[in-house]
Amino acid sequence: MSKQYTVEEVAAHNKQGDLWVVVDSKVYDLSKFAAMHPGGLAVLLDEEVAGKDATEAFFSLHRHEVLQKPQFQRLVIGTLAGAKQTIFPHVPGTLSKVPYAEPTWLSAGYHSPYYKDHHRKFQTAFRKFVEEVILPDAQAREEDGKRPSQFVFDEMAKLNIIAMRLGPGPHLKGLELMGGIVKPEEFDYFHELIMGQETVRVLARGYTDGLGGGTYIGLPPIINFGQPALKEKITKEVFAGKKFCSLAITEAFAGSDVAGLRCIAKRVENGSQNGWIVTGTKKWITNGSFADYFTVGARTEQGGLVVLLVERQEGVETKIIKTSYSPAAGTAYITFDNVFVPYENTLGKENKGLQVILSNFNHERWGMVTASIGSQRLIVEECLKWVNQRKVFGKPLHNQAVIRSKLAAMISRVESAQAWLENITYQMNNMNYGEQAEYLAGAIALLKQYATSTAQLTAADAVQIFGGRGITKSGMGRFIEHYHRTVTFDAVLGGAEDVLGDLGVRQAIRKMPKNVRL
After folding, report:
1. Fewer Cβ atoms within 10 A, N terminus or C terminus of the chain?
2. What is the C-alpha separation between 500 and 498, in angstroms, rounded?
3. Nearest to 400 by CA among 388, 411, 410, 412
4. Which helix H or strand E contains 422, and what residues bound it?
5. Could you give the CA distance from residue 207 to residue 213 in angstroms, rounded to a whole number?
């Protein structure tokens, strides 16, 4: 049992060299630390801090996680008599009680027609895994720019998380998912939605792309269009976390304009060589710097497109591209210099590559939406916490009407986007691939445009709410700064907002009845 001190005993230690403070009932001896305080000695010697209960002052300047660091826990010498701890660290896997911090299906008192008991068990287990295994590595790698640690991929592989990230399908048959919480035949798009929204809780945008973002979009064409032997070999290695994929379509010459690709694949058939010679470049390729396999779109001599599985080898060179998020994503510029590709590595048919490329767009964009909305919700939670503890003019920040107005808009955006997402996800669960392509391509495009455009509004509002802290890479607003700096990635990757908005409307116009009039 820790020693207890009275208010008078603490108050006696209020000067340089002999300095105590109280934070949330715990007594800290800062006598030696004070001179090393990053904010300066004067802050600690303030008459409202030295020898006093400085809980409010502390939480106006620091996040709670600071108190959990070993170097500061060692400064605790006891507790304040009669006081009780009221602020507790987050327990991995548990839900937030902050309003709108969780989607309604996870909020007490609410109901949902979409989620079953195995979804709830899956969410609890997956959040615990994210917060215990992924989050510590994410924060470290986002900072130092190194690719996600192999240890994390190994732990993901043990639970078949890498396989589950590709969504429901035959590739899950015979696998034990998340320790047996959900059966392969039960796994649906709502489980995948949960994974997308829980993974972003690490609040490290570059890292989350580095954590198999390339595999998420680069492996499906191999699974869906590759030869059986090739497919079995690659999926086994990738699902085990030992090898990595990238989707190499985009070029400096062609982004959303897939038909404008200039990378060339020349057909060769001369005895020992039966395949393709690939020459060209690719740009902004997620995970490209450390990928072992590249799903490459190239133009044939006949003018059509072909998609090939290219292994990392001589003639394949990758260089890191510096973007506004962390190099942990492995975003790369790739050069293919007369690279030979065996014919059995052809995905789909010659000159029919556009079908292969387009086949995964709906799922890719839907997956990006799950993450985008999940991230936006975390920012809403950060803002609600901040306005409740930040004091201005002697009152909580939420007393300002303009702040409440911003919060109202932020909450409305994320809740409407979540509702639209869950509706589309339900349709996906009840449609085959062809039906999804027919009915959901436009809806998913419009949803992505809506989610990413509103996310940027929320990012701007969050910066205004946090003020200077919202543009500072450390401290109270570090997650706001990070979000504001990286939020536009979702608006560009998988199709720019204007392109997707136009796609959605063109799909609607195409289905307009010919016999309707005002």
Report:
1. C
2. 5
3. 388
4. helix 401-429
5. 9
Give the mean pLDDT of the chain.
95
pLDDT at 192 over 90: yes
How many other CB atoms are there within 10 angstroms of residue 374's CB atom? Answer: 22
| Mean pLDDT value of segment 20-24 | 96
Distances (CA, A) of 2 to 12, 27, 69, 80: 20, 10, 19, 10
Asked if pLDDT for residue 1 goes beyond 60, the answer is no
User: Which runs of consecutive H residues, i.e. helices, occur in 430-477?
Assistant: 433-439, 441-466
Does the CA dihedral 486-94-119-243 come out positive or negative?
A: positive
SS (H, E, C) 235-283: HHHHHCCCCCEEEECCCCCCCCCHHHCCCEEEEEEECCEEEEEEEEEEE
| C-alpha to C-alpha distance for 401 and 251, rounded to whole angstroms | 47
* Buried-exposed string 245-274: b where 16+ CB fall within 10 A, e elsewhere: bbbbbbbeebbeebeebebebeeeeeeeee
Nearest one of 486, 140, 146, 134 to 327, comparing CA atoms: 146
Instruction: Give the pLDDT score at 230.
Output: 96
3-state class of 346 per DSSP?
A: strand
Return d(Cα 141, Cα 131) in angstroms, integer: 15
Mean pLDDT (whole number) for 3-30: 95
Residue 462 has pLDDT above 60, yes or no: yes
CA contacts within 13 A on the Cβ side of 337: 7
Q: How far apart are CA 414 and CA 295, in angstroms?
A: 34
d(CA 89, CA 94) in angstroms, rounded, equals: 11
CA dihedral sign of residues 229, 231, 234, 238: negative
Q: How many CA atoms lie within 13 A of 349 on its CB side?
A: 3
- Single out the residue of 214, 242, 216, 210 nearest to residue 145, CA to CA: 210
Helices then strands (H, E): number in the chain?
A: 22, 15
Task: State how far the alpha carbon of 129 is from the alpha carbons of 54, 90, 103, 159, 178, in Å.
Answer: 34, 14, 19, 10, 10
The residue assigned the tokens 């955006």 is 413
Q: How confident is the model at residue 270 (pLDDT cuts 50, 70, 90)?
A: confident
φ, ψ for residue 397, nearest 5 deg: -60, -30
Tokens of 110: 């609410």
This prediction has a pTM of 0.94
The pLDDT tens digits of the residues spanning 53-80 come to 999 999 989 999 999 999 999 999 999 9
> Using one digit for the tens of pLDDT, what is the confidence trace for 153-189?
999 999 999 999 999 999 999 999 999 999 999 999 9
Helix (H) / strand (E) containing 18: strand 18-23
Q: Looking at residue 258, what is its pLDDT?
A: 77
Beta bridge partners, 280, equal: 336
Q: Residue type for 66, please?
A: V
